[in-house]
Amino acid sequence: MSLGFVMLCHTALDRAAQVARYWATRDCPVVIHVDKRTPGPKAEKLRGDLADLTNIRFSPRHACEWGTWGIVAATQAASMMMLQDFPQVRHVCLASGSCLPLRPVEELRAYLDERPRTDFIESVTTADVGWTIGGLNYERFTLRFPFSWRKHRWLFDTYVDLQRRFRVRRSMPSGIVPHLGSQWWCLTRQTLSAILEGPEREDYDRYFRKVWIPDESYFQTLVRQVSTNVESRSLTLSKFDFQGKPHIFYDDHLQLLKRSDCFIARKIWPEANKLYDTFLSPNAGDEPRAEPNPGKIDRLFAKAVERRTTGRAGLYMQSRFPNREWEQGRTAAPYSIFEGFAEVFENFDTWLSKVSGTRVHGHLFAPGGVEFAGGATVYNGALSDSAILRDYNPRSFLTNLIWNTRGERQCFQFGPSDNQQIAEFTAADPNAQISVITGAFSIPLFQSNRNFSDIRAEAAKLQKVESDLLTILRAPNVKARVRIWSLAEFIESPMEPLQTLVDEISPRSMRRLTEVPRMVDLTGFGQFLQNLRNQGMQPVLMGDFPTGADVTTASSRRARPYLVK
Amino acid sequence: MADVRAEPILLFACLRNEKVRLPYFLQYYRDLGVDHFLIVDNDSDDGSRDYLARQPDVSLWTTKGSYKRARFGMDWLTHLQRRYGHGNWCVTVDVDEFLIYPFCETRPLRALTDWLDASQIRTFSSMLLDMYPKGPMQDQPYREGQNPFEIAQWFDSGNYTLARNWALGNLWIQGGPRTRSFFAEDPKRAPALNKIPLVKWHRSYAYVSSTHMLLPRGLNLVFDEWGGEKASGCLLHAKFLDTFAVKAEEEMARGQHYAESREYRAYQQALQDQPDLWCKWSEKYINWRQLEILGLMSKGNWA
Lengths: 565, 303
Fold this sequence. Notes:
heterodimer; A: 565 residues; Rossmann fold; five-stranded parallel beta sheet; B: 303 residues; alpha/beta; 8 helices; globular
């Protein structure tokens, strides 16, 4: 008993000839269909090239436009020819001109000999199909499709819409349950002949002629009528991308294909010489077989689709520039913004980088220049510390920094003196952890040796900027993890918030904070605020500091901080 | 061009006095699978013309016309593209630009163009990536025929700014060592790095400004707007070699470049103190996979 191949070809006929010859010389009859749209001389050449083989036939040519009946008609005619001309054939395998056998045909034959009654055809009910493109599943069978999808997309879509709106339905031939599946099947003579010679074939054909993409449904549906033993999978490895177009195999997929356990692969790039040479070589079967690992191919192509549809979060580049709110991750990784902490604590950045094991920068958006950690003038990815370059495109600056330092969490200081352009972007970024001690900007002023009228003006300006920032951070569309304390509130009990923040930044350490950052001396701060008030300014963001009674800061308690466990 | 195969991949370039670069340039693109070169020589006097005329796969046009008045050479090339490019994949590059695309080590350019055809994609984006040596450019002279990236091995990996140009629908990319070193005071004027050098040509197409963008506008949509990544490559830019100082001098004198040759003026000033573009965070070039991982280019859904 033998196996026969029906091959549908339209381009790269020299490759098709190579594969046909491979099968034919191994005692597998081949019936070749050449697309009517392929130029005549090319088809003639193919015929000539294979003229020496007696078990190769050429079937009547049909035009095979994608998604239309022509492909089914061609398959039917070629299959009929196969069944009539080669009575010894038991299984008929449908292949294309860009298919390549991955395992010696003897193995396929042996495999089929063990399963003489089994039909290998992917056949899934429309409800269970997740892979159709264009949202047409069941409607493929109930609407009419007189217009070409490729050439007249607008007419195609409009006609579908019209039919939906007016609820126009075609009636299905009785007893048919629509099934879909891969075009590439391997059927037994019994099943195939039952489909092709059945009394109702004319009715079915008339119906399927107007079904959308009938090559994925004609045999897949009818096989359920006649076969008793359907194995719903294809013996042909064929992967599709997100547009429903087959992935192509190249020379560099050789190792991957060797480890596939499929018998046939499609589609192969016609110029993939190494693949054709390897798999069609006479001693292809002699090589020791690698352990099959078909999952690897699945992963490779699944990843490719994911890269195309989802991309890499936080990456902005020449071929990925998402619209606002479509970023699928505004930035590449979590990061922390501290506002007011460097003012309240001495050497806050050193302390933080020690306890959390992260990179802690100064004010990245400082007007004088970028304060990278360690005073670097250039940073990961050759980012410059120039304020002009940063302010030319602050969003690019920040997203670049976070992208360039993937794997190492970045923390930086921020304040009302800094360039505020970035604030809205970070507030709506779920990766941002923003912690603000409001009013802390007044501490450096308090410590400064400037004229009080200057201080007052400066304090008023900074307070205005910080209020605007707080408005942004309190807006309903904020996606960052925002925490806000007033200065008075914070210095009342600083350890608890610090512990929470550090735990969030480096959850694995889960250590208690043993070393406390040293708080600046705020003796006289209450009076300072009162002086501002006396000068006519209203300091509101600092919270409640009683005049006269001096605040006790945590720095005076050197004991271990109290913590809620 | 009579003996060129059906549906050839064509390369268009315009040059002046680039003899020293030509052997490697031609070989590089031949190896990728370019079938024929269409080159406009703008009045070279260093033997470029004779050299090109001797190549079997080069069609050469010569002009003494003004580079500037021909829209920096683009008018000449547009004319040739209309005439010979229609229906073919066309690479349009300068002789110091070297195309890198996903899998370029294992798959010829035709594998890419076949895939683009199958995916119904007409244009392929390749950002210009400025390559530079470590140390002053004069220290490592470039020999004819040499791979320029043996010298200019380094690049900036993550300091590029992107903005949308709504007028033509393209992305405007700037940054890299040139912005960092020559335009730090005026980044707006830094050169654009977005490029679309590979196009399935139609006679109705035209490049607008160098190969940065095209008309009609739809051709510039080489990026995904919904979070995904389209396939893209890089043009490795071998501008910063020892030949650069001489070139900057010559181009300044001719005054034939964009915006009063402002770019070259900036270079000339900076070059006087023998700058080193290299910095501690410069990345050393390895292969396309490295550029892919760094996010400078993408495989998209080509696997």
